[in-house]
Design brief:
- The complex is a heterodimer of chains A (285) and B (535).
- Chain A is mainly alpha-helical and 285 residues long.
- Chain A has one domain: MetI-like (MetI-like fold), CATH 1.10.3720.10.
- Chain A contains 15 helices and no strands.
- In chain A, helix 4 packs antiparallel against helix 5 and helix 10 packs antiparallel against helix 14.
- The longest helix of chain A has 37 residues.
- Chain B is α+β, with helices and mostly antiparallel strands.
- Chain B folds into three domains: 135 residues, 3-Layer(aba) Sandwich (D-Maltodextrin-Binding Protein, domain 2); 115 residues, Dipeptide-binding Protein, domain 1 (Alpha-Beta Complex); 232 residues, Dipeptide-binding Protein, domain 3 (Roll), CATH 3.10.105.10.
- In chain B, a hairpin with a 2-residue loop joins strand 6 and strand 7.
- In chain B, helix 9 packs antiparallel against helix 11.
- Chain B is globular.
- Chain B starts with a helix and ends with a strand.
- The chains are: A mainly alpha (285), B alpha+beta (535).
- At the A-B interface, helix 11 and helix 12 of A face helix 7, helix 12 and strand 17 of B.
């Protein structure tokens, strides 16, 4: 990607108010993630109070069922929830991009086989599959990453394949091909650089999905109950009757809002980026 | 107009929740069950709570445990054991009929014992019969004699457990495990099962004139509510009168504050333990296991996980509320220095300076503390214990796993002969293991015929010899001495660490029913609570 194109993308992006809001939210989360140790008042893994304490000046959001500080848990939760979401989305996007580029560029039987695989992944009922996989593999960080990436890659692969199909027939690519450029040369110099911005937009949108799924899986008890993600906080809140005791106000609402905010941040950024890199979408709002 | 809106609203609520709206009628009690238990025959009720006690609403046994779990005559009016301890003679009560009107006779009893031997699907009832019974004969309509293979003091308790089947129904059933129709569910018990819709509802009707006392209710409705939050919400607002699920500790204050809702708590015999695989290093060394025991603070677990609603774990295993509890057994108060000293002495030192101990040969020492995912009590216990063990330099991180997977590692096919494949983990045993003085023997005897719950592979000749003595003793005074000794040996040998026994806590609306009987160690949902034995 040339610098002039990058500059152009940035310029269009800045004009998109939703994108700016999205990026600001993401920056705020990035800050929290990086400085979690500094910001959080306590070590989230240490039992610093009595179980089920209500919010007070010592514990702004109270304590959880074994006396760990909830605010600190939520701050550190950003690290795990966003980190896991991002890692899973990155793996999924790598698979998706490779499949999309290969299928789109190779065409023919390769395309057919790969796209039918995509179809299969897309039509499999997504929630039961996820629950089944999570239960089979057992709860751990990397298993969750695996489950998430297995489910996410198919849709972006489709989008990227479509883009490659159109790219393949563009003048400069056709020219490169007719002058005897090798497949590798064409892919790495013309096709992949052109789809990367789209991949990036898809990556950010995929992260939104993985964060949501991680939260739901963990909430259902299928995540890793030892790692302190937002979904896990919600799981323990539910398991220890927060909805009945009134503790939902400080135990369920805040992580819920955090998840919503993160998802919104990624969604806004992703859509804005998609519009920017895909001119056909630009005037549609 | 308003009425129409109300009806519409109710219909909508029904549509959305799928939980039938239950109207409280006179003579009716609504008890929510937290699990479905199939059609409640002895072959198909779902083991554990609430299935077993629901089954005993319909079925009776020759004897039945009273609130203190002491066997009392039930279907049998008298039960006598001969001097040599080999021949039981039962005289059945007169005039008992099955729910379908057929008379209940001694031939049903004989048939039942033979049927459980032939069809082993109800292993819980087959086991004791196969082990203890030589033969059964019906002397006349009301007299049954059972001849035992050997002296079996424990058999008296087995008799409280074995539900008697109607011969006229089961003689034609050759596949009892799949006899899942309600029409099969015919017993002599105080309530007849008239309706069961899977995972939805049970409806019982009174068996008026029941021989042990008149049923308190004409109708017992048991909606199945699987989600605990939904269940406790329904209880709190009075949509149901009671629930079979033990109330979580954090809800006790909440429920006590509700006018008319009573909370009753008592000792629970369900134990939570830390199992260690005694067959592999480092856990094959008793001093290592003792060091682990020294790292654990049972009181802190009780206060944190159960908010005080639990009894401290007894390293001799018996719950302090049982008549067999021996306070003299070593209890291993938390003592990091003692744990460190033991580990140092064994040569488990931190040679590479990472803060965690290695094996004496210098290789990495690390095991996950396996625990059942989806049970906050267990994952939290594992987390806390893992922190304590790290304090004494043991790298044992908590690792939740799916329940069937954990069973597969700890107790493959529920048969200890298949060995085990784990280091350590959180495990619980249900209350019946403590109803008799013989129960815990099943957890430590090295012979799988006796130690069929010995899932940690504990093997100690002294313990085996003591267990054999206990099993052979019919003298009460001697038995008590031996059981005391058993607990001392348990505590010294540390086959596993008993963490705590969670109290059982139940909430109910007193205006619906206030004659609950609390079965020691188990709770109020029992046949004894549902019939008027005084009247």
């Amino acid at each position: 990607m040339s610098t002039s194109r990058l500059r152009e993308i940035l310029k269009t992006f800045r004009r998109n108010p939703l994108g700016v809001v999205g990026v600001s939210i993401l920056c705020a989360f990035l800050f929290v993630t990086v400085f979690a140790d500094v910001i959080s008042p306590y070590d989230p893994y240490e039992r610093v109070g009595k179980p089920f304490e209500k919010p007070s000046t010592t514990h702004l959001l109270g304590t959880n069922d074994i006396g760990q500080d909830l605010l600190s848990e939520m701050i550190h939760g950003a690290r795990i929830s966003l980190g896991l979401g991002f890692v899973a989305a990155t793996i999924a996007m790598t698979i998706g991009t490779v499949v999309g580029v290969v299928a789109g560029y190779a065409g023919g039987i390769v395309d057919t086989i790969l796209m039918r695989m995509v179809d299969i992944v897309l039509v499999i009922p997504f929630l039961p599959l996820m629950i089944l996989l999570a239960a089979l593999l057992g709860p751990s960080f990397w298993n969750l990453v695996l489950v998430l990436s297995v489910i996410i890659w198919a849709r972006p692969a489709r989008v990227i394949r479509a883009q490659v199909l159109s790219l393949k027939e563009r003048g400069h690519v056709v020219a490169a091909r007719s002058t005897g450029g090798t497949v590798a040369h064409i892919l790495f110099h013309h096709v992949i650089p052109a789809v990367l911005p789209l991949s990036l937009a898809q990556l950010i949108l995929a992260t939104r999905t993985t964060i949501l799924i991680e939260a739901s899986l963990s909430f259902l008890g299928l995540g890793d109950p030892i790692s302190k993600s937002w979904g896990t906080i919600l799981y323990y809140a539910q398991a220890r009757s927060a909805f009945l005791t009134g503790a939902w106000l400080w135990w369920i609402l805040p992580p819920g809002l955090l998840i919503s905010a993160a998802v919104l941040g990624f969604a806004f950024t992703g859509y804005a980026l998609e519009e920017t890199v895909n001119p056909r979408l630009r005037g549609r709002r | 107009m308003n009425k129409r809106i109300l009806v519409l609203g109710l219909a909508l609520a029904l549509l959305i929740t799928g939980i039938p709206i239950l109207v409280h009628a006179a003579g009716t009690i609504r008890i929510a069950a937290h699990l479905d238990s199939l059609n409640l025959t002895p072959f198909n009720y779902v083991t554990g709570t609430p299935g077993y006690r629901k089954m005993t609403l319909v079925y009776d046994s020759l004897l039945y445990g009273d609130a203190d779990n002491i066997p009392q005559p039930w279907l049998a009016e008298t039960a006598e054991l001969s001097e040599d301890g080999l021949l039981w003679t039962f005289v059945l009560r007169e005039g008992i009929t099955w729910h379908d009107g057929e008379p209940f006779t001694a031939y049903d009893v004989k048939f039942t014992f033979e049927y459980y031997l032939e069809y082993t699907g109800a292993g819980r009832f087959t086991g004791p019969i196969a082990r203890a019974v030589d033969r059964v004969w019906a002397y006349d309509d009301r007299t049954v004699k059972i001849y035992l293979k050997q002296e079996e003091p424990a058999f008296r308790f087995d008799l409280t457990d074995i539900p008697i089947l109607p011969r006229h129904i089961w003689k034609d059933i050759t596949d009892p495990d799949n006899a899942l129709d309600v029409s099969v569910t015919v017993g002599t018990g105080p309530y007849k099962l008239v309706e069961w819709r899977e995972a939805e509802i049970y409806r019982f009707e009174a068996n008026h004139g029941y021989f042990m006392g008149e049923p308190y209710f004409d109708t017992v409705i048991m909606p199945v509510i699987l989600d605990s939050t939904a269940l406790f919400t329904a209880l709190k607002v009075g949509e149901i009168d009671a629930a079979t699920l033990s109330v979580s500790a954090e809800l006790v204050a909440e429920f006590e504050a509700v006018d008319g809702l009573e909370v009753i708590a008592g000792p629970g015999y369900r134990s939570l333990t830390l199992k260690m695989n005694n067959g592999i290093p480092p856990f094959d060394d008793v001093e290592f296991r003792q060091a682990v025991a020294y790292a654990i603070d049972s009181q802190d677990l009780v206060d944190t996980i159960q908010l005080g609603y639990a009894a401290l774990g007894n390293m001799g295993y018996f719950h302090p509320a049982t008549p067999w509890f021996n306070p003299e057994a070593e209890q291993y108060e938390q003592d990091f220095a003692a744990a460190n000293a033991l580990l140092d002495g064994l040569g488990y030192l931190d040679v590479d300076g990472d803060g965690m101990r290695e094996y004496p040969d210098g290789s990495e020492l690390s095991f996950p503390i396996l625990c059942r995912a989806g049970t906050a009590q267990r994952t939290r216990s594992a987390e806390i214990i893992s922190d304590w063990l790290a304090e004494v330099g043991l790298d044992f991180p908590a690792q939740p796993m799916e329940w069937t997977a954990q069973v597969g590692l700890f107790w493959p096919d529920f048969n200890v002969r298949n060995g085990r494949d784990y280091g350590l983990g959180i495990w619980g045993w249900s209350p019946p293991a403590m109803f008799t003085p013989w129960g815990p023997i099943e957890m430590v005897h090295s012979d799988p015929d006796y130690g069929w719950l010995n899932i940690q592979g504990f093997a100690d000749p002294d313990m085996d010899a003591l267990c054999d003595d206990i099993l052979a003793t019919s003298d009460q005074a001697e038995l008590e001495i031996l059981i005391d000794e058993f607990q001392v040996l348990m505590a010294d040998g540390v086959p596993f660490v008993t963490l705590f026994y969670a109290d059982v806590i139940f909430a109910y609306w007193a205006d619906a029913h206030d004659q609950w009987v609390f079965r020691k160690g188990e709770g109020i949902h029992d046949k004894l609570s549902m019939i008027d034995m005084e009247g």
